[in-house]
Amino acid sequence: ETIHPKVIVPLGNFACQVLLGKTGITAMRGRCFEKAGITYCPTFHPAAATRDPRRTPLIVEDLKKVRNLF
Question: What is the spatial distance between Cα 70 and Cα 55, in angstroms, rounded to a whole number?
Answer without folding.
Answer: 24
